[in-house]
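hi!! sorry for the late reply, been swamped w classes. u asked for the two structures so here they r. pasted raw, havent cleaned anything up. first the sequence of the first protein and right below it the C-alpha cells
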Amino acid sequence: MSTNDEEIIEQEQRYRASAYSLLAALLRTPPEQVLLDHVATLSPESDTESDELSLAMAELAGAAQKARPADLEDEYNSLFIGLGKGEVVPYGSWYLTGYLMEQPLSDLRDDLRALGFERSPEVREPEDHAAAIFEVFSVMISDSVDLERQQIFFERHMKSWIPRFFDDLAGAKSADFYGFVARFGVAFYSLEETYLTMRT
C-alpha cells in the first residue's frame, strides 16, 4: 500500500468517525449554540461523496445557521421525550421488539463488553439509544477496530433498525431541524453501508 493510499484511508476513517460523533451529539441532547455553530460550517470534504449526502449536509448546515437553541429544546422534547413518550423512540429494543429493555439490549451489552466498553455510572439512558450506538461506533473507528468487527457490529446492532428510526424521525410532525438531521443520517447511513460492504 502506498503512502497516498494510507493517507486516503486515514482521511476516510476520520470522516466516518466525525460523522458518527456528530449524529451522536445531535441525538443525545438538544444542541447548544456551540454545536450549531459547528454544524453551520459543514461542507463536503471530497468529490467522492454522493450527491445526496452533499445536499443533505448543505441543508443541515443551512438549518443550523437559522436555528435557535431554545426552539430546538422544544423540538427535541416533543420528538424524543413528550408526555410519557415522544413521537420517535430512539431505542433499538423498541424497534426490534416493540418494548424497551428487551433482548436486543442484552445482546448489545454483551458485544460492548467484548469490545472493552463499560457503561458510565452517570449515564441513565440504555445503551441501545441511537446516540449511544453512534458514539460507540465513532470510538471504534477512531481506535482502529478492524473493519470486519465494525461490519459485524453494524449488522447486529444498526442495520435492522437505524434506517427505520431515521425514516420515522424525518416524518415526525414536530421535526423541523431534526428533519434535516434525519436526511443527513439517511444519506450517511447509505454510504456507510456500501463502504463496509466494499471494504470487508
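now the second protein. again sequence first, C-alpha cells right under
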Amino acid sequence: MSGDHDDYQSEPIRGLPERPPAGETILWQGAPSSWELAKDVFHIRLVAVYFGGLMAWRAHTRMAATGDPHVAVAALVSLLPVALFGLGLLGLLAVLLGRTTVYTITSQRIVIRAGVAITYALNIPFKQVDSATIR
C-alpha cells in the first residue's frame, strides 16, 4: 500500500474496513480517474469557461473605457492568477479524492471507501440495490 494515506494502513484489504466474512469474495475493485472527477464532479471545464468569460469581459470593458489595448491586456492578465489558483485547487481536490476513493464489489455487497480529510466506508448490500447499469 505504498503511497496510500496513513488512515488506510489498518485496512486488511485495500478499500475494505475489515476482512470479508467467510463465503464472500471480491469480484472487482477500482478507483475513479482524477480527470473524470475534475470534469464530472468539480466541473473544471465549466469553471475554466467562466474564468475565460470573466477575463474577456474585463478586458473588453477596460478597452471600451480607455481605448488602450495595454490596459485591456493588463486587466485580463490580472485575473489570471485567480483563475489558475481556482482551477489548480479543483484539480488538486480531484487528485486527492481520486487517490483516496476505492470501489469494491463483492459477491454480497458494494463498498465505497472515500474521503480526503474524514474517511468513511459505505456498505450497500445487494438486497438494497434495485438495478445497476454500466455507463
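hope this helps!! also noticed smth abt the second:
Confidence is low (pLDDT under 50) at residues 1-5.
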